Amino acid sequence: MKAHDGMYIDGAWRPAAGTDTIAVVNPADEQVIAHVPAGTAEDVDAAVRAARAAFPAWAATPPAERAARIAALRDALAARKDEIAATVTAELGAPPQAAQAIHTGLPVAVAGTYADLAATYGFEEKAGNSTVLLEPVGVVGAITPWNYPLHQIVAKVAPALAAGCTVVLKPAEDTPLTARHFAEAAHEAGLPAGVFNLVTGLGPVAGQALAEHPGVDMVSFTGSTAVGRRIGAVAGGAVKRVALELGGKSANVILPGADLAKAVAVGVANVMSNSGQTCSAWTRMLVHRDQYDEAVALAAQAVAKYVPGDRIGPLVNAKQQERVRGYIEQGVAEGARLVAGGPEAPLDKGYYVSPTVFADVTPAMTIAQEEIFGPVVSILAYEDEDDALRIANGTVYGLAGAVWAADDETAVAFARRMETGQVDINGGRFNPLAPFGGYKQSGVGRELGAHGLAEYLQTKSLQF
Length: 464
Description:
This protein is an alpha/beta fold.
């Protein structure tokens, strides 16, 4: 167990204002591995003041110089990738291979995209007799989740820096050690003092203080829809800009003529990734009635490969474990049929949940409407394409999804009618340059690529 002290504020590690700490627990064995400071409103205020003081000079820094600092940050993260991956495994429970490829490799790549964008983005354009300037919003309060701790930090901080904003980061209390690695990398990259600041702490204390602070111009939050509503209300009261990446209940629509075996296997893998703790996971598998029994059998076969403690890690904490097990119990109580898994804990130690597949799920069931955030797949039958579309669009969410068909043209025609922010066509690969974000209660705004950079810019026009 290691005790970490201090917050990264104004270019240096400095003592926290209070003495309370947060225990960091390894979810695989339930052992405390570290303590970090539980930040207070006083810590947040110091960080915001530092960011506020640093903003004018950073905003005035030429984009090419900002790009060079982001490239140096990317390199610093890459240099410590093994250490970061080991930390993600320890505090999140991600299997080592996933910790390397997804939790470390992906954010390093995303940081590189913003080094490139900062150097090439058009921060000035002509419109008739006007010159339109795209300028940084100001001080950004970034509040990140635990499920992809480094990726979500990079997805907010890198575009904010590219835009010329300064940042105060409040990471999730379950995974603060990864955030400390990021702060050390930012320091090594030579970011000027105050441009990036880190305050660890609890959401209702440090997170709320950051969202409410009058010196914060924008709040970027990723997490549950319930918390997103509260942050949106707080920010709206002060007329601050918000970017909210929230929950999801994404549909994996398999149309007749598609490669059923591939679509089911990829769909199950998508949900099992990160132990189901992914807001964009395709947790509802929609299959035509004529192929339903075959799809259920294929899903049972596919999920058997995900052995807890080997190919699939634990959930992040005991509360999350109990929450997911409760949803599984509710699914059974409402009449869904267990094809694989169930509510029983698969191992004696650790916050594991059995990879679970439900059949005979109807659209009105709780497990087909609410975000479970665990390794649970619900398979629903549809009668025709219009019925499939009704089911796919029939939740309050709209974050992601997938469509499988005999050809891309058919899949795209269906995807165009889906009320969701991102759709994979016939197994299309993840693209870190494509905008990511949701419709409806899945959020406001976009992350990644040029659209993610635009979130941190405001517009001024000069008339001649």
